[in-house]
Amino acid sequence: MARKEYSFYPGCSSERNASASNYMVSVETMCKTLDIQLNEIPDWNCCGASIGYGEGGELPRHVMNARNIALSQEHNAGQDIVATCAACWLGTKESVERLSKSEQLLADTQSILSEAGLKVDITRNTAKGVRHMVEVLIEDLGYDELAAPVKKPLDGLKIAGYVGCQTNRPFGIDGESFENPKYLDKMVEIMGAEPAEQYEQKVTCCGGALAFSEPEKSQAQIKDIVESAYDHDADMIVTPCPVCQMNVEVYQEQINKTYRKNFKMPVVYYSQLMAVAYGSSAKEAGLDGQVIRAKELEEVASQ
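^ thats the sequence. predicted structure below, dont judge the formating
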């Protein structure tokens, strides 16, 4: 029996062959080392994060999240719901908050769910059981336990911790500052690398919501995020958010053309750092899924 068990909500981006499938590979590797069992919610659906931009209305989005919660309560009773995607985590948590405070919205949601034979139990305490994977690692295990399995310290690497906006506001990690959260810096440090502690772009939005509608604004944001990492002599950027990871990595080539830059900054997940530091191969850490190769991490993994 695993030391810790959670009801797992992967989200669309972590599906096999999706944009963050390498994130999922590294999470599975990391969890195996830490003896964490993730029990996937059966027949889970999209969190509806994009519905708001498509003017789909409030109710459909909350129903989608409530359905996932209902399925979790039915199949993984008593287990906290854990998401690796910041948007999935934030959207699910927001739905709990809204449904717990509006009797009419909850009644409408229950009516729709009943057509599928489902019912969701929503209280104000339900939100405490909707968590990001980083929350679980820090709050349930703690930094000392996360440091214990390190076999290959990431010596000589300097890493900029890019938290982004969704895992930081309005909820965030317990005890952390909204303006200057330190948890990624601490995670980098216990893996043996040097954090870029003065990295001032750590909570800047990557402009993910504007990537298609107003790409010039989004790419201006990303330029500042990457440029600051270079200014602080970082070898790579680490993030807990698949939207941030994708945007900050894949648009660097376009930004180079627009702004006459020469960016080639790897952007990785905290779980990839941990998997490599725990002794896993580059493939087990999902490094073969990077657009911009994290060569320094690959070298540590090959040792």
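Residues 4-135 form a domain with the Glutathione S-transferase Yfyf (Class Pi); Chain A, domain 2 fold (CATH 1.20.1050.140).
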